[in-house]
Write a structure and sequence with these properties.
Length: 215
């Protein structure tokens, strides 16, 4: 039995479009949740700039979802860690994330699915949501941190998306995110004095998601 407040990690491998994908499942504490309440898929930052599924923002998102009763799955994108293939600029990564979506739905049928991402991962999750919506099976909700607006063509997202950005982000300037959000009438949560990597600000991600999730 796990101790209170701690989640369990289960590594697994998924067959992706370019070969095997290294994945980790984070389970909610069984002492708090008799059964999972939902599924969360978490996408990491850019593979060519050191992004992995063990990035601190990515793991914070996964742990946050596990803390509210979701099973949280994250993967190393193509060419990262033990995942096969090469970086595909978001296309193949979105295909692989859809495979993970299908896999998790098969493992946990009937549960709602949340999509969360950081930086490049926000592009992947926004593209996946656009694809799922066209298929008539959209995700329940998105959480986008350090949204890659202006750097890549991030599609519009649903009105209930939680968007969190740092005031002093110099990788993806806040103005780019505001320009992307404005035509959608989409609120953006701005963390004062926060850089792109949410250094010393990770607790704000957790707090906002927990507070806003079931509004």
């Amino acid at each position: 039995m796990s101790s209170p407040g701690r989640s369990r990690l289960q590594p697994f491998t998924l067959a992706g479009g370019a070969g095997a994908l290294e994945c980790v499942l984070e389970l909610p504490d069984p002492e708090r949740y008799a059964a999972p309440r939902g599924i969360a898929l978490v996408a990491h930052p850019h593979p060519l700039f050191g992004g992995t599924m063990d990035n601190k923002v990515t793991t914070t998102l996964a742990r946050t979802f596990a803390g509210i009763g979701y099973v949280a799955a994250r993967m190393n994108f193509r060419g990262v860690g033990a995942s096969a293939g090469e970086h595909d600029a978001g296309g193949g990564e979105t295909d692989d994330m859809e495979l993970l979506f299908n896999h998790m739905q098969a493992q946990y049928p009937g549960l709602p699915v949340a999509l969360a991402g950081f930086s490049f991962g926000t592009l992947v999750q926004a593209q996946l949501q656009e694809r799922l919506a066209a298929q008539g099976r959209p995700a329940e909700r998105l959480v986008l941190t350090g949204t890659a607006a202006g750097k890549w063509p991030v599609p519009p997202v649903p009105a209930n998306t939680i968007v969190i950005h740092g005031e002093t982000d110099d990788t993806i300037p806040l103005i780019n995110v505001l320009d992307w959000a404005r035509p959608q009438d989409l609120p953006v949560i701005v963390i004062p004095g926060c850089d792109h990597f949410f250094n010393r600000k990770l607790q704000h991600i957790k707090n906002f998601v927990v507070e806003m999730w079931h509004r």
